Amino acid sequence: MSKMRKISKILITLTLLSPMVAQANYAQRKDVQEFIDKMVKEHDFDRAVLNQWIAKAKRLDGVLEAIKKPAEKTLTWKQYRPIFLKQKRIKLGKEFMKKNAALLERAEKETGVSKNVITAIIGVETYYGRHKGKTAVFDSLMTLGFDYPPRSKFFRSELEHFLLLAREVDIDISSIKGSYAGAMGMPQFISSSYRAYAVDFDGDGKRNLWDSTADVIGSVANYFKKHGWRRGGDVVHRARVKQKPENATRNKLKPHTSIGEFRQQGIVTDKAYADDVMVTLVTLEGDDGTEYWFGLENFYVITRYNHSALYAMAVYQLSQELEK
């Protein structure tokens, strides 16, 4: 190969690699420097320290792939339900409840949130703390905040909260692992939720959602209480339809129509609810075909944890199994 051809090949290679290098070194990007400016100005962070942290951040292409196809958007109820209603998950949930009975009773008494639902959330999220995630949260939030345009605003906000949280609870940002979307600990709180809803339930002066089961139980209960959980209220109830409703495939999560109005449309349930009770109609494709459910206010509260009807139904049905 001639000397000129070698030089040409090297230049082409460098040209192809340069975008990857630029993306990998976030500290050199203008949008990242603007974020650093904001953290210094608004929150009094040390610019040199931030630059040092961010220069080490890695772009995680696997995270960008994962966020495009979450299970809640790609699976049917028939496929989704068996993941969370396995006998082993139910068995371990009952063991978790027995081991932490006093804490769960206290949380239910203080917040009104069912101990079965609290346990089911922890069971669905991390298999009762066994699977807390292996992705570097800082790298994940950097990747999603600066290389995922559809939700960059949200994830930059979460990155801001993560840095503030690290300072507040004194954690090393490089050591924190979680989900691909930056959720952390046994209950998989995102950073803004951690700061807003995590509580010190064991009284040691810290809010530790990684190692303190008490703090985890108290924080999940507090999350639901703050989002409007109704003590003793129903979550969902099976509905029967005389003909397929026009909006059957539109699973609005928030209750929007009264039981009385649905009854006039020929959509009924066996439980005698008052006509003015507001519900949403949830439709799911199960083992035996289409299922119809009335989702009440507590169903909507569960979806504040994860904005998915499939998720809320999995949590509810697991909680019912734990109650047996």
Q: Which properties best describe this structure?
A:
55% helix; disordered N terminus; 8 strands; four-stranded antiparallel sheet; 324 residues; alpha+beta
Notes on the protein architecture:
The chain has 324 residues and is of the alpha+beta class. Helices cover 55% and strands 9% of the residues. It has helices at 3-24, 30-43, 47-55, 61-66, 71-74, 77-84, 87-99, 101-111, 115-126, 137-147, 152-169, 191-197, 213-226, 259-264, 297-303, 309-323, and strands spanning 135-136, 177-178, 236-238, 240-241, 257-258, 267-268, 278-286, 289-295. The longest helix is centred in the N-terminal third of the chain and has 22 residues, at 3-24. It has a domain at 77-134 and 185-226. The strands form 3 sheets. A 4-stranded antiparallel β-sheet has the order 3-8-7-5. A two-stranded antiparallel sheet has the order 1-2. Strands 4-6 form a two-stranded antiparallel sheet. The termini are far apart. The model is unreliable at 1-23 (pLDDT under 50).
> Average pLDDT, to the nearest integer?
90
> Oligomeric status of the shown chains?
single chain
* Main beta sheet strand tally, sense and closure: 4 strands, antiparallel
Output the number of helix runs: 16
Give the DSSP E fraction (strand runs of 2 or more residues).
Answer: 5-15%
Overall structural class, as computed from helix and strand content, comes to: alpha+beta
What are the low-pLDDT stretches, counting only 5+ consecutive residues below 50?
Answer: 1-23
Counting DSSP E segments of at least 2 residues, the number of strands comes to: 8
Give the radius of gyration: 24 Å
The spatial strand order of the largest sheet comes to: 3-8-7-5
Distance between the termini: 76 Å
Proportion of residues in helical segments: 40-55%
Q: Using the alpha-carbon principal axes, give the shape.
A: globular
Order of helices and strands: HHHHHHHHHEHHEHHEEEHEEEHH
